[in-house]
């Protein structure tokens, strides 16, 4: 409790899906001063706005969760926006933190940054072994560059920045918009609406053969708060469950829970994305990586 009672914390993206749970976890840990600025008040795409945020909020710890995200369809439709917005927000947030003399910067990356042909499970040391899977490469590379910035700033300025790589998240308060949601909320909504309308079938992207690893959002929030408190090294850390499931099996699970008994039509003209995603988890023992 003592660590967080005296810290002033600012979270970019603190009003979003993951951020809202990180805020709850911080409060449970005893943090009394938490700020979750809205993008309409501080646009991190502008360096002057990032500097103004640090001047106004005066954080001891900054947790950068803000991101422009979406599923495969959203990534394919917005590669330029996903690259620019995610890169420039992070670059400005880190540079402003350096100028302001923030004690610690915690940056959330993405599993999408891993190379397309990395052996499964993903090991942190293989992070730079190739180009990401094409459907979300612009987003993955934008977030990946923030690790480079943090490590360069640590080397030159002694800047205390850490980088965490969460897998796909799911849980309450997720985004259920079919145009921009990730796979679990999208499939939940499709099955629910199909059941309500008594539709004969639902459609799903790809073949269903690709596998993914999912992490419950509250577990991700717990890991981020633990890392903010205890992890001090420059190397990235995977955050995941260590378990994978095929999209086909995932849909069958959701379909059963939703009580939808109609057919599933797999649209093989749509991409599967990366064939498999599973992180290596032994290094996730953050308390022993100080």
Number of helices: 9
Radius of gyration: 19 Å
The secondary structure category is alpha/beta
Q: Could you tell me the mean pLDDT?
A: 92
The termini sit apart by 18 Å
Strands across the major sheet, in which order?
Answer: 2-1-3-4-5-9
Order of helices and strands: HEHEHEHHEHEEHEEHEEHE
Strand content: 15-25%
Which bin fits the share of residues in helices? 40-55%
> Which residues sit in consecutive blocks of at least 5 with pLDDT less than 50?
282-290
Main sheet makeup = 6 strands, parallel
Shape: globular
The total strand number stands at 11
Describe the structure.
The chain has helices spanning 2-5, 17-28, 47-57, 72-77, 79-100, 137-157, 183-197, 217-230, 247-258; strands spanning 8-12, 33-35, 61-64, 104-108, 161-166, 168-170, 201-205, 211-216, 237-239, 244-246, 263-267. The protein is built from 9 helices and 11 strands. The strands form 3 sheets. The chain has a 6-stranded parallel β-sheet with strand order 2-1-3-4-5-9, with helices on both faces. The chain has a 3-stranded mixed β-sheet with strand order 6-8-10. A two-stranded parallel sheet has the order 7-11. Helix 2 links the parallel strand 1 and strand 2. Helix 2 (17-28) crosses helix 8, helix 3 (47-57) crosses helix 5 and helix 7 packs across helix 9. The two termini are 18 Å apart. The longest helix has 22 residues, at 79-100. By secondary structure, the chain is an alpha/beta fold. It is globular, with a radius of gyration of 19 Å.
């Amino acid at each position: 409790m003592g660590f967080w009672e005296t810290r002033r914390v600012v979270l970019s993206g603190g009003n979003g899906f993951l951020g809202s749970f990180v805020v709850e976890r911080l409060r449970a840990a005893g943090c009394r001063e938490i700020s979750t600025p809205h993008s309409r008040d501080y646009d991190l795409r502008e360096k002057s706005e990032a500097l103004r945020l640090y001047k106004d909020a005066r954080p001891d710890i900054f947790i950068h969760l803000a991101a422009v995200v979406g599923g495969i369809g959203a990534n394919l439709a917005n590669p330029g926006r996903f690259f620019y917005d995610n890169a420039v927000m992070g670059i400005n947030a880190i540079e402003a933190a350096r100028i302001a003399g923030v004690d610690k910067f915690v940056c959330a990356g993405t599993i999408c940054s891993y190379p397309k042909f990395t052996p499964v499970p993903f090991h942190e040391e293989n992070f730079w072994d190739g180009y990401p899977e094409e459907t979300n490469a612009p987003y993955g590379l934008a977030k990946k560059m923030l690790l480079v910035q943090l490590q360069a700033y640590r080397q030159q300025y002694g800047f205390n920045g850490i980088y965490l790589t969460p897998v796909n998240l799911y849980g309450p308060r997720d985004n259920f918009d079919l145009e921009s949601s990730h796979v679990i909320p999208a499939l939940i909504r499709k099955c629910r609406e199909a059941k309500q309308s008594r539709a004969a079938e639902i459609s799903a992207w790809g073949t269903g053969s690709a596998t993914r690893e999912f992490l419950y959002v509250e577990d991700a929030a717990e890991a981020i708060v633990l890392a903010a408190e205890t992890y001090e090294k420059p190397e990235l850390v995977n955050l995941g469950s260590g378990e994978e499931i095929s999209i086909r099996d995932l849909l069958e699970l959701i379909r059963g829970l939703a009580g939808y008994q109609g057919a599933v039509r797999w649209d093989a003209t749509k991409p599967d994305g990366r064939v498999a995603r599973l992180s290596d988890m032994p290094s996730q023992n953050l308390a022993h990586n100080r």
